[in-house]
Amino acid sequence: MSAPKKVVLAYSGGLDTSIILKWLQTEYGCEVVTFTADLGQGEELDPARRKAELLGIKPENIFIEDIREEFVRDFVFPMFRANAVYEGLYLLGTSIARPLISKRLVEIAEETGADAVAHGATGKGNDQVRFELAAYALNPDIKVIAPWREWDLTSRTKLIDFAEKNQIPIATDKRGEAPFSVDANLLHTSSEGKVLEDPAVDAPDYVYQRTVNPEDAPNEPEFIEIGFEKGDAVSINGEALSPATLLTKLNELGGKHGIGRLDLVEGRFVGMKSRGIYETPGGTILLEAHRGIEQITLDRGAAHLKDELMPRYAELVYNGFWYSPEREMLQAAIDHSQHHVTGTVRLKLYKGSARTVGRWSEHSLYSEAHVTFEDDAGAYDQKDAAGFIQLNALRLKLLAARERRLKG
Asked: Where do the annotations place ATP binding (predicted)?
């Protein structure tokens, strides 16, 4: 790969990406553009601007953007229409943020005339795959630089030495080994590494950042109502909210009640298993609510097909194939299924759990006249079930008769 002339770097303002910024300048002698995304990680972004300026980045080459609404509306909500869960448990909080970051990196490269993008993902993880597959899907000619796969800064000591030699400010708490690494956005927090690497050892309480311990959550349950339109949540307790505002509110409610904690050993796309501690308070409530409204508005055949498609969809998101034709095909089918997924769900939030306790909709397929134990006034003729059972039993009878005949 020829040396890049201008690189757009996914920049957090932290020590690692600041070292990458300086390394790009010294290794390639190239101009660097920084992109810092507000995805709801809960951190001030002005320090990232000041750090970039301190490292010699021109003001016009510093991009700091609030993309929370786009994140929830165009990435989180479509994924939740699918009820996507990876390996039965993980709500894909890190995975779903990467295609949006890559999208903006590529767009900013186009706007600024840059010929490359760069990220700070390591060579052991999934994120390198997600960033790069997305970038290539959006611009097949873009160069992607992954410093962790190129440089010789293979230890914390070497990173600190490089920072000191290049006058990169180092926070006091960064001189030692961090107890674990954190990735956060509006959907979740992800913690892994160091004190969490032994899957046999309980995660320390200080790892959790967004949720109270369920044992310490309020002793009284809280009931909320979430309104849906065509599969997307649009209101809480009757108040219409934007996508990002709604998820923020659900995070507050879930965190207060200790909802959404997950200790998971997952199979990474690159082959190894890793242990992560995830907190997805709002997403856990949202998934329960979405399934609740689907229970009365989605036909059985469509619902069961969705559940068959879901693991494949979740795997595509996890592995970084958001912009693949197969994910888009699945999305089209899923979105079609949501045309009547409109109504309201009532949930009980209590000590780590979010449970559906009521649901209603003008689009409901639920017929009390058909399921009642009382007189159904002719809505359902129970005699019809006899023929239904006989037809479905025919092949089973033939199989059983053959077995009996061969044994005899």
From this structure: 10-18, 37, 120
